[in-house]
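Reading group handout, session on sequence-to-structure problems. Before we discuss, look at one worked example. The prompt was deliberately terse, the way you'd type it at a terminal:

> structure 5'-deoxynucleotidase

The input record follows.
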Amino acid sequence: MDQQLSGIVSFIKELERLKDVTRTAWTAEGRQESVAEHSWRLTLFAFALEDCFPDLDMNKAIRMSLIHDLGEAYGGDISAVLQVNEKDKLQSEEEALHRLLAPLPQSMREQIFELWHEYNQGETNEAKFVKAIDKMETIIQHNQGYTPSNFDYAFNLEYGKRYALHDPVLKSLREKIDGETMAKIKKT
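And the output record:
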C-alpha cells in the first residue's frame, strides 16, 4: 500500500506540469491559459450540464474531461489552427501519457488509458459530449478572454462544430456560443 500511495503522490506532483503548459487562449486579465485551467473548467462545464443529459454516464464524462489533455504534459498544446498530422499528434500524446502515468498502479493506468482512447476515438455518447464541450469551452475562452488584434474569430465558427450536431441540446448550446462569436466579429 505504501508503494501505491507513493506512486500516486509522484503522479500528482508530475501533474503540476499541466499548470505550466500554456494554450493559445488568454484570460480576460491577459494571462495565457494553462492546460490545467482548461481541463478544470471543461470538467465543471460537463458537471453543470448534467441535468440536460440524463442518459449520459456523467461520471465517465467528468473523468474523461479531467484526463483528455494529460498527454500534453510534455509536448505541450498544439493550436487547432495549425494543421498537424492527427495520427502523429495522438502517438506523441500517448507516449507522454505512458510516461506521466508510470508511477500509478496498473489498474489505474489502464482505466485512464481506456478513457483517453475512448475520448480520442469519439464514438461513445460520452466521448462525443466531451469533444463537443471541449471545443465550446475553448471558444468561450476566446470570446471571454484577451485576444490579439489579428485573432481569427471566424475560425471559431467552424471549429469543432461537427461534434455538436448529433444532439439537439449540444447544437442549441453551440448556436448560443456562435452567437457570442458573431458579436465579437462585429465589434472587431
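Points for discussion. First: The first helix runs from residue 2 to 14. Second: DSSP finds ten helices and two strands in the chain.
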